[in-house]
Structure formats: C-alpha cells, structure tokens
Amino acid sequence: MRPSFFSLSMLATGAVLLGFSATAQTSATKEPPKMSKPAYEVAAYYFPSYHPNTAYSKEHGEGWTEWNLLKQAGPRFEGHQQPKVPAWGYDDESDPSAMARRIDAAADHGVTAFLFDWYWHDTGPYIEGGLERGFLKAPNRDRLKFALMWANHDWIDIFPASNGVKPAILKPGPVTPETFVKATDHIIHEYFSQPNYWRIDGKPYFSIYELMTLIKGFGDMDKTRAALDDFRERARKAGVGEIHLNAVMWGIQVLPTEHLIKNPEEMLKKLGFDSVTSYCWIHHVAPDGFPTSDYVKWMDKSTALWPEFVKRWPVPYYPNVSMGWDSSPRTNQADKFENVGYPFTVVVTNNTPEHFKEALQRAKAFLDKQPADRRILTINAWNEWTEGSYLEPDTVHGTAYLDALRDVFGKK
Questions:
Q1: How do the domains of the chain map onto residue ranges?
Q2: H or E stretch including 114?
C-alpha cells in the first residue's frame, strides 16, 4: 500500500493481525442532508500522493510527487510491463478541476465513495492537499461521498527503496493522546459535518489502519478504549451523532515493529469497533512465486477467505477486491530485483480487466447473501499507481477497469 516494509516470506494466511483543512459547509450542529442510499456501497481507497506539497519538497526536492517514481520505473524482468502511464497525464490532484475529472469518472462507473488515506502525525497533517484543496473544492463534489481511513503507520523512506538498506522512519505512526484529540477534533468539525461525508446508518464512517500502532500511542488497551469513547462523546456534543468505527484487518506482519495480536476478536470488542474490512489482498494472501504470480490464483485464494472472515469477526466484515500488485516503481531501479522485502516483492500478472470483473462479480454474489445494510465493498485502489493497483485509466487499458466496475455495480 503505502510506505510499509515487509517480506513475503513472513506471510502466513492462518496468522491474523489487526493493523489494521476544509471549511465545513454546514454547521456541525445541523443534520447533514440525506444522500440516496445505493443498493451497494463501493468505496475505493484513494492514496493522495500525487500533488506538490511542502513536506515532499523538503524530503525529496521541490515539486516532487509519486509521479516521479512512476515516470522512472522500468521493466525489472522480461515481459514486465513498466512504466505505467496515466491516460490523464501526470496531473495535480489538488487542482479542483483535476479532481473533478476523477469524481465524474468514479460516479459514472459505480464508485459511491472515495476512502481517503488520511495522515496526521505528531507533527500535524500530512499530504492533505488532494482532499483539502482538490476534492472538497471540486465543483462536482456532491456526486461522490468521501470518508477517511487513518493511515497511522510509520512513514518510512522508500522513495525509492534500496535493496539491503533498512529504510529510515521519517514520521512515526504512534501519536500522543494530545495529538489524537487535536486530530479527531479536526475530523469532527471539518469532515464529519460535510454534507457528502459517507455515513452508515447515519453514522460517519472512520477507519483505522493499524490498531497496534494506535494502542502504542496510548500505552495500553484500556487507555485506548477511553480515548475512542471520548472521541465518540466529543462527536455527540458537536452535533454529529454516533460514529461508525472501522478497523482494517490484517493477515500478515508488515512492519518490523508490529506485534502479533493473539486475540483479535477480543480486541475488537474491548475497543468497541463497529466493523472490519481489508485494505488489499496481499495483507492476507501471499501471491505464489517470484518474480511473477498469477492474478486468478491470487483471486481464488483471497475471495475464498470472505466467508471465513464473516464467521470469525464479532462485527460486520466488508470484503475487499484488489485490482493488482506491483510495487517495483518504489524500488531503486539500479538495484538487483529480488524478493527481499517490500517494495522488492512479487509482481502480480494476468490481472486483466476481464479477471478483475470476475472478482467484482464474486464480490457482488457474496454481498447478495449478506443483510442489505452490509452490502459494502472496498476496492484497492483508485490510484495506488506505484503499487500497481489502480482504477484510473492508463495508456494500455484505458477505462477498461472502470468499465468492468460499471458493468457489475454501476447504474443500469
């Protein structure tokens, strides 16, 4: 996904881990306008790393974005399709007109919400321009809902990563209790009050990427539960109402500093979460082989886990579909390409639009067997270009992946 560091040799499907500003247009004391509820909610993760910002300029040079990594990517083995080239060009997502094009494409093809990967460290907000200046100021923003997935992992220096070099931590994931209050106050007043913020049963959806990192910031589970309860209470007092807290579920260890959760079901209950979902298939299933692995086999193993997840978790589970996987653009292109740990990982091939459509059809069939209020799907991802998982059109397939989504979940 984002800057994480792991070895596919560490994957174990049986072992489970959990790690899982704009000006409000309406007063937080008023009920937001009700948006029509679709038969299925299709929320695509949005990684806001494609706009110039002060932090990136300081870390990597003036005007740098992850487009720079994509441009310099090349084939690492025979038949490797790199670089990926965006059909819309290397635009600035913080430009409202550029974001408007994304919103129209998403809404026209069955996406109902963008789930923004959202960053707030002890130093404050990070790479927020795509949401703040782009999405929230887009003239057509009312066509699409949005929500936040707090990507509270360590932000590490892998732009690009070098083979054999342990990346430095640029921004630690754990935050102090004071930072948590400041960040969640911002969420309550600047995002939850937005008229098109995504709600489940009237409750604003807020997802957390790494539960163990959250707990580490508070010191123990009891203090974490107290902080989450306080978050809920501050939202009530602000007139937002109840919150829907979602945890991202893991099946592998990603960062060296993460800890195995021995009783994840008990943890979900103790912390009071309302649901779980996934970020991408590779968090649960290791694609076979190196340097390539077949998408269909990966899909078969990943989709087979959905019924198990529904039975295991004490709260609703929302399935995930991944479009692909190729993190090689985040590697130093001069280094030997071998399976030594993220982003030097296997490349998933044969993830054609047709096979992606089959994965979506399986998701729809699965959701049709769930209660109507649980027919929610997350997709990896709208624009994880440097991890090889994106719905945005490229110069090879055009809008074929979006068309597949429209054919399965779009308006008839």
A1: 8-409
A2: strand 113-121
Q: How many CA atoms are closer than 13 Å to the CA of 189, on its beta-carbon side?
A: 10
Question: How many CA within 13 A on the CB side of residue 373?
Answer: 9
The interaxial angle of helices 177-187 and 221-237, nearest 10 deg, is 30
The conformation of residue 367, written as its DSSP 8-state character, comes to H
Would you state the CATH architecture of domain 8-409?
A: Alpha-Beta Barrel (3.20)
The pLDDT value recorded for residue 26 is: 37
Compute the residue count for the chain: 412
Closest CA to 359 of 393, 328, 405, 325: 405
Mean pLDDT by 10 residues, the chain (412 residues): 43 36 38 67 98 96 98 97 98 98 98 98 98 98 98 95 95 97 98 98 97 93 96 98 94 50 84 96 94 98 97 96 98 97 96 98 98 97 98 98 97 59
Q: What is the dihedral of CA 133, 135, 138, 143, to 10 degrees?
A: -170
Give the per-residue pLDDT at 24.
37
Q: What is the pLDDT of residue 282?
A: 94
Number of C-beta neighbours around residue 240 at 10 A: 24
Distances (CA, A) of 254 to 18, 205, 342: 10, 25, 9
Q: pTM value?
A: 0.92
What is the DSSP code string of 246-264?
EEEEESS--STT----S-H
368 token code pair: 């049709």
Q: Is residue 144 exposed (0-12), middle (13-18) or buried (19+ Cβ within 10 Å)?
A: buried
Question: What whole-number distance in Å separates Cα of residue 85 and Cα of residue 385?
Answer: 9
pLDDT of residue 13: 37
Q: How far is CA 276 from CA 146, 212, 248, 326, 371, in A?
A: 18, 15, 6, 25, 16
* Two tokens, residue 384: 């994880």
pLDDT value, residue 263: 78
Is residue 232 within 8 Å of 273, Cβ to Cβ?
A: no
- The whole-number pLDDT of residue 2 equals 54
Crossing angle for the helix pair 264-271 and 221-237, to the nearest 10 degrees: 40
- Phi, psi at 164, each rounded to 5°: 90, 0
Distance CA 14, CA 108 (A): 38
